[in-house]
Amino acid sequence: MKKFIALALAILTLICLVACGPTADNDGEEKDTKAVTADAGEATAEAGSDTAGAPDTSDIEDEGKADLTGKLVFIDPDGEKIIRGLSLSGNRSGTTEFNSKEPADEGIRCVFELNEYVGIVLDTEQGTVSVYVLKHRDDQSSYGSYEARELCDLDDFVTLGDLELEEDGSWGEFYVNPEDAEPGYYDLVFTVGGKAVASLVTRFYGEGELSGKTDAELEKLMQN
Fold it and tell me: Rounded distance, CA 139 to CA 106, Å?
């Protein structure tokens, strides 16, 4: 009888060991899996952190990028400000107030659309001025080394407008034909007596791109 009881206990112990063994292994595997998952999560979090800190380059143009300042650049070699101030207006976006600012040497509207009529008002003693539209170049002062007529021969040349003071105080208007130019950055170069005296960096968008923009949105674009 004692032998039978001892045998039964031995069999019961063996069964318990077999049942508990895999459970322990599974626990170990489960712990390992959790550790791997945790490591992967940390790596993903780190990657996400790096991405969040990276600058947004979706709206950055690699080619032809320019700083819009809305400031008139004086390039008269004698240092005399023949054109003291400038005001530009468009006929496709912006309120009347936004498009009727007094001529100044900064805060000038500098964003328009191709094929948009751009109105001009100048603060100057001159009665006749010409405006040349050229593809943007970083060195604005370089225009002073050309005679006005030579600007038309440059590869950068886009269009020319001859301006005269009118009775209502305006100086006429000009537009950039989309058949002659693509959206991008351009310089308005003002000449008097055959010499470049001032310039303004501008940006022309594609037709319709500024439609519906508020004054605040236009101001923001002017600071890009």
Answer: 19
Average pLDDT of the residues in 34-45: 44
Q: For the purposes of burial, counting CB atoms within 10 Å of the CB of 160, is it exposed (0-12), middle (13-18) or buried (19 or more)?
A: middle
Query: pTM for this structure?
Result: 0.71
Give me the amino acid identity at 54.
A
Better-scored residue on pLDDT, 70 or 33? 70
Spatial CA neighbour of 87 closest among 50, 124, 40: 124
Torsional sign, CA 123, 126, 131, 137: negative
* Per-residue pLDDT, 198: 96
Question: What is the predicted pLDDT for the residue at 64?
Answer: 58
- Which strand ranges, in their side-by-side order, compose the sheet holding 118-124? 83-90, 118-124, 173-174
Burial of 57 (0-12, 13-18, 19+ CB in 10 A): exposed
**Domain ranges across the chain:** 1-54, 73-221
CATH class of 73-221: mainly beta
